[in-house]
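Sequence in, structure out.
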Amino acid sequence: MKTKYSRISKLNRAWGAAYRSFDELRPPKELGDEKFKPSPEAFRSPQDKRRWLDFITWYHQAIIDFAEQSVKALLKYYPAQKIRLKPGGSAGGVNPIAWGTYCPGYARMAKSYPIVLQPADCQGAVFADKWTGTAYQFYHVKECSEPAGNLKEKDFVRRMFSDASIGAAQFFTYEFEQHAPTMQKYVHLLTGKSGETEIAVYCPTTLYRLGGNLQPTIQAAYPLRDLCEFDVVDEILIADGALTVKRYKVLLIFQADLVEQSISDRFEKFLRSGGTIIQIGDSRIRNIEGKTWLPRSRFKRVQRVEGSQAWLEELVPQLAGSRGVDGKLDGLWTCKRGNQVFIFNARDKLAETAVAGQKVQIEPCTIWVPD
């Protein structure tokens, strides 16, 4: 905190506190309550929110810093190709904040070392895989996926498609004998290159750090994947310059109830540069102090009703023409990398589509790859 604020008076203004020196600082008092669960509502004032955000951001980074020191120690004695780091996983979405494992932060750290990162819980959970994969691609870190285990065959195939789509370069499983034929059939798709896209989905990191429920964003990723390939950009990546019109045409926002001002400034810059932001839902986008962000142009809203996918149909014409968008809600997930196209049939029935003018049939829960 001393590094961030330099003077205790500045910290006191930010936190609404009255400390006499940095030596008096302790972990948040809420941690002493066994029943306490972080939530945006638990921190009533902007000062309380800032105090918690400062703590949890430090907490996650401290664990990452410790991991980096471990990597440095190992590199003194082992070649880089012998070292891999397991930065937690994703729990099928985004890890609970108490776990202390925020995967994009590890990717940013590992960019300086030629090692492999091996995140766990890779199960074809769309948002989770994109959340890690986009960061690894952005920071040029090699990824080896690792599952939670006990995947049924159809889920294993979806995992292999998702791993290929996000740009995983290596593959790990606890159930080699069970799924060996499937791996032999599809493992060549894991090239380390991700699917092409000009669509990004926003991961609300500040809301997450405050204990907010990200399920509305996480669950929306499944039907959205039917419509298009997309990346997931969180606030770490956005702060490091990932949100540019050179990379993306459209940013989709499902949740942004609380956003750091520096991130909404990046939103504004993206809009001014010619990008488009589409917010699905009607919640206000506010900074920690409660000020609402009022975008000026190229900002659109799509209404979202619980239990309805009308929002998805409304997105079809708005995303049409962008790279990575197949434009059809047919249960087929498409990945395109240069001249290569492969498609996963996410439904439990035979599907038919056209690729380069040729009709193809795809069995349920399989990946179609051209001959």
